[in-house]
Amino acid sequence: MNIPIKKSCFYSAVIIILSQLSISLFTRNFQLSVAVIFLSAMTFLIQDFPLIPVTVLSAVGVCSLRMLLAWIVTDTTAPISRYFPEMTFYLCYGFLLYIYVKNITSWKSSGKSFFRKLTQRKDIDTTAFSEYPNRNHTLLVLTVIDYVANFLELLVRLDISAFHIRLQTGIFLTAFFRSCVVWLILTLFEKYRMLLLKKEHEERYQRLVLLISKLNGEMVWMQKNTLLIEETMNHSYKLYQELTEADVPAELSTSALATARDIHEIKKEYLLIMRGISEALNEEVEQDGMYLEEIFTLLKTSMFTLADSMDKTLNFKFICKTNFYTSKHYELLSIFRNLLINALEAAQEQTVTLMISIFSQDEAVIFKITDDGPGIPVEYKDEIFNTGFSTKINFETGEVSRGIGLGLVKDLVEKRLGGSIELASVPGNTTFTVSIPKNQIEVIKS
Q1: How far is CA 95 from CA 4, 134, 136, 398, in A?
Q2: CA distance to 165, 338, 402, 407, per residue, from 211 (Å)
Q3: Residues 183, 135: contact at Cβ < 8 Å?
Q4: Which among 84, 215, 227, 436 is placed 20 to 30 Å from 172, CA to CA?
Q5: How far apart, in whole angstroms, are the C-alpha atoms of residue 231 and residue 442?
Q6: 367: exposed, middle or buried (C-beta count within 10 Å: 0-12, 13-18, 19+)?
Q7: What is the percent of the chain with per-residue pLDDT over 90, rounded to a whole number?
Q8: Is the dihedral of CA 436, 438, 439, 442 positive or negative?
Q9: 290-441 adopts what CATH topology?
């Protein structure tokens, strides 16, 4: 057996020090310390805690330290028999606790193994077994262990007098109190662990929602491209027919026909990819929705993360005068994420201010997205929604943006949601106003 010596010595040293925080009870030499609380708590909280080595080292160390302190204070050497009962307590407590922990481990292993055999599935989730035993069961067992160890120490010290009802009541109450402290520590750590897990799951869910919104936006772009592929294929086939009727070498018409066939094959593969992505997205999209405030809170978080990566300081203002549940959250995320990213990337100053205001007007929901960037030149205002148009060029790499962001926004707003989008821009103030019929995005929850 590989014994972690350094870990065992460290934990033992802590227990030996804590053993000095004690009170005398019943007899002058019978002392109750908080060290046992630390030993129990660490056994349950630390995986592969070296319980037996720590128990043995602690028992010897506590006894030796108290002998040394007594010699320093009284300048006399007391017989070891005076401190031996304390060793009895620690050894008894540690070994009983070890038996209990071992039985838990065996139960978990046999329970998982039996459950897997019963279901004939090796991938079955058996995490539910990790909840055994519950903390109430642990409280009861720790009380019994503490009581037995204290009783054994008293028996060694006082012989038959240890059976006195007052002593028995005292060590039972002491055992119960210390076990309650351990129970409280374990409960607090469990609550903290669940809080961390909840936070991790929320962050993972937020990343998943943003990812799906991106894929959803790309699907809109891909669907638009299918029309372009179809038109290109038709033009190629029409060119083949014209070349066949014209007095040109046969190789040209054959080449045009081959091009039409190739485009047709590309179209088939493209549609298969789209169908696969669409089916996966539809399964996810149909399952849930979000409130407007949740959507923009999620966007706010992602924008701060993006701003940090760009070494920019972001001031984000959000005014929501109407809030309702919508199943079009992925479309809305795609729309406003593209608008916000464009504003953040176009900003030339170190500090960027973005403001979103939402309110109802007649039967529509109005979204205003405003930034304090350099503005959009007048000559570009009629072109920015055209697919492929972009003013974003990386002069270091020569890379040009795809130029599909605002084109995608326009398609989502007008074709998917039946709304409209308008632009007003001057240097220092650019506002996109998105108007969407309320009945297109609002879901009445039953």
Answers
A1: 18, 21, 21, 71
A2: 68, 13, 19, 19
A3: yes
A4: 84
A5: 36
A6: buried
A7: 8
A8: positive
A9: Heat Shock Protein 90 (3.30.565)
Which sequence spans correspond to the domains of the chain? 5-163, 216-285, 290-441
Burial class of residue 180 in the structure, from the number of CB atoms within 10 Å of its CB (0-12 exposed, 13-18 middle, 19+ buried): middle
- DSSP for 28-79 reads EEEEEESHHHHHHHHHHHSTT--HHHHHHHHHHHHHHHHHHHHHHHHSS---
Cα 184 to its chain centre, rounded Å, is 26
Q: Which two tokens stand for residue 77?
A: 């050497």
Report the C-alpha gap between 265 and 233 in whole angstroms. Answer: 10
Kindly state the percentage of the chain with pLDDT values over 70.
71
Which residues are registered as beta bridge partners of 22? 33
Per-residue model confidence (pLDDT) at position 323:
86
Closest CA relative to residue 267, chosen from 225, 236, 238? 225
Q: Tell me what the mean pLDDT of segment 219-234 comes to.
A: 72
Place of tokens 């026909």: 257
Q: How far apart are CA 150 and CA 132, in angstroms?
A: 27
Identify whether the C-beta of residue 356 lies closer than 8 Å to the C-beta of residue 317.
yes
How far apart CA 112 and CA 97 sit, in angstroms, is 23
What residues are paired with 313 via a beta bridge? 351
pTM reported for the whole predicted model: 0.49
| The token pair that represents 129 in the structure block | 């077994």
Q: What angle do CA 50, 56, 57 make, to 5 degrees?
A: 85
- Give residue for tokens 């047709």: 264
